[in-house]
């Protein structure tokens, strides 16, 4: 929510006006929420981090491989195989949330999806570079499509 909106909500709900800056609001949230949660869950988070990282990397590798193999097995063109590889391998953060909820519970629910988001920023560009080095599957130049004016 934008920082201008929060004072408006306070005015509407409490009949009082307050002046809040983003920095002070962020600082309060860190002090009231993040620090206590992290301090109280430090051991659990550190204990689960290695397992979560391994699960995220394995889950992503299986998704990328499955997307690629299924695309090829069903006779898709190379450009569709590449698109399917990305879609299956890099769009499974929702499943990561479900896995985190089922296996970690509590405050660790956000750990796997957060790791997944970071890991996608590693595997996505790496895979795009690999595909790019293999050339355009359509055999043409990498140019934007012409306008249909």
TrEMBL record:
Keywords: Membrane, Transmembrane, Transmembrane helix. It comes from the Archaea. The keyword Membrane applies. The chain crosses the membrane at residues 20-39, 45-70. This is Bile acid:sodium symporter family protein. It comes from Halarchaeum salinum.
């Amino acid at each position: 929510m934008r920082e201008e909106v929060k004072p408006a909500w306070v005015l509407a709900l409490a009949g009082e006006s307050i002046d809040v800056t983003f920095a002070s609001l962020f600082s309060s949230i860190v002090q009231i929420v993040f620090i206590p949660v992290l301090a109280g869950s430090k051991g659990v988070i550190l204990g689960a981090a290695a397992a979560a990282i391994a699960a995220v990397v394995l889950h992503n590798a299986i998704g990328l491989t499955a997307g690629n193999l299924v695309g090829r097995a069903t006779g898709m063109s190379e450009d569709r195989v590449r698109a399917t590889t990305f879609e299956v391998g890099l769009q499974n953060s929702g499943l990561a949330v479900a896995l985190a909820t089922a296996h970690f519970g509590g405050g660790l629910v956000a750990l796997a999806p957060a790791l997944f988001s970071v890991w996608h920023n590693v595997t996505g560009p790496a895979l795009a570079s690999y595909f790019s080095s293999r050339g355009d599957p359509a055999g043409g130049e990498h140019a934007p499509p012409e306008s249909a004016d």
